[in-house]
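Training component of the fellowship. As part of building independent skills, the fellow (R.M.) carried out the full modelling exercise for a liganded target. The chosen ligand was magnesium ion. The inputs are recorded below so that the supervisory panel can assess the work.
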Amino acid sequence: MSDAVLNVENINVYYGSIHAIKGISFDVYDGEIVTLIGANGAGKSTTLNTISGLLHPATGSVSFLGESLAKIPPHKVVERGLAQVPEGRRVFAQMTVQENLEMGAYTQTQNISDDLEKVYSLFPRLKERMNQVAGTLSGGEQQMLAMGRALMSRPKLLMLDEPSMGLAPILVEQIFDIIADLHRTGATILLVEQNAQMALSIASRGYVMETGKIVTTGTGQELLASEAVRKAYLGG
Amino acid sequence: MIFLNYFISGISLGSIYAIIALGYTMVYGIAKMLNFAHGDVIMVGAYVCFYAVSRYEFPPFVGVILAMFVCTVLGMLVERLAYKPLRQAPSLAVLITAIGMSYFLQNTALLLWSSNPKVFPSIVGRGAFKLFEGKLSVSHITALTISACVVIMIVLSLFISKTRLGKAMRACSEDKGAAQLMGINVNATISLTFAIGSGLAAVAGALLCSAYPTLMPTTGALPGIKAFTAAVFGGIGSIPGAFLGGLMLGVIEIFAKAYISSQLSDAVVFAVLIIVLLVKPAGLLGKQAQEKV
Ligand SMILES: Nc1ncnc2c1ncn2[C@@H]1O[C@H](COP(=O)(O)OP(=O)(O)O)[C@@H](O)[C@H]1O
Ligand SMILES: [Mg+2]
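Fellow's submitted model of the complex:
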């Protein structure tokens, strides 16, 4: 393993007086899929939003490619190569599929037609619907669009927040296949999931979160096999 | 022919409402706030144009450009100083701030320029085009107002739908958090929106005062409210809605003045607004809020 792409060091995050993240630390190395699993309300989204710069840690630090993100506004974070696919997809519903992808490439100065082709070949469904407004897509298609949109920024780290949320099992399989494919072609991924089984089965390493803390960590296989994780997240 | 004359007057007045309504609707679309000081920016634009042309004898179009420049800066300043610190505040606090800002601008104008009405020089000659052997007469300012509205409509629509910045504005108006995750600078985009709206307010001010030449510190207030009504009428947040709402409001107002009663015309305008909102709560072209799973 080479240098850490992402290093989160003992961050504490508050919403007013609510202490949502209580001193967590973790790393993501080049080429890894790291997953952050935990029940609803554990603090997974808060963690991703803090890394993206939408929220600020009260203490602790986030570094990306060796540089601190402390004073970097969220739109500059994207420029540095950190993309997030937010929870609930949040595609721009009134814009077309193609326009959504263009927004994904907002920070890119070079010609984006190659990147568009890449995303369309990864998600052929999107190509068929390129001129359709995103609000008319199905949930699965919107997830594909949200992922494609993030890829348009040529991220060095792709963060996904519950990509399986609200999708039918067959679509969940499809989305995870794509994530695994991206990983095989060299992408570095931080995957947040409640679907621990799926996430751990493709992850290099995982961290288990509970009420703002990391309670267990290990390789994907170790966590899948671990008694505590089985009990808590995999239904026995 | 008299009907057609009224109709053209209505479209002309409506064009001014439409240009003002754009500022309300674009700002609402992106910042989700009602900028009640917008009407007073019109007044400031009219004063700048007035002094440039009457006192310093600049050509009218230079006066308009100066007014646009001053209003653009003013709009961005108002946003930066008064509204940006309230980005996370409850909407009622923002609304009260906007009303306060409106009075602040009016009172500053009172202090600077006194309450004595100024007679605004038309930015085009007072002449008219005669059509149909003189049966239909369209004044130069009417023709200019309608043309300005059409040009603004086309340019702005192209800007919003085709350019990178225009698309970023649409993205911000839909979801600021997601827009930030795309690398869009949301604060700069909001600032740009205020700049565009206020620059257009200056144009509206010059056109309005050319057609109705009395300029006072309160000059912008009523057209501001009417244009706000037009924006709601067309569907607040919708740019085509602002045009449609503005034009319809102008036509209804002039017809009400001509055929019903000039005292009652505003009441008629608001009655139509209420009926439209009862039937279509989001306005004529407004999008009904809908959730997608
Ligand atoms: N905007 C917010 N304001 C206040 N509390 C919040 C907000 N968002 C999340 N929280 C709280 O922070 C905790 C972590 O939430 P979140 O990060 O969304 O969890 P997860 O993504 O793991 O489901 C929860 O207790 C939640 O109620
Ligand atoms: Mg979450």
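The panel noted the following from the submitted structure. Chain A has ten helices and ten strands. Residues 169-184 of chain A form the longest helix (16 residues).
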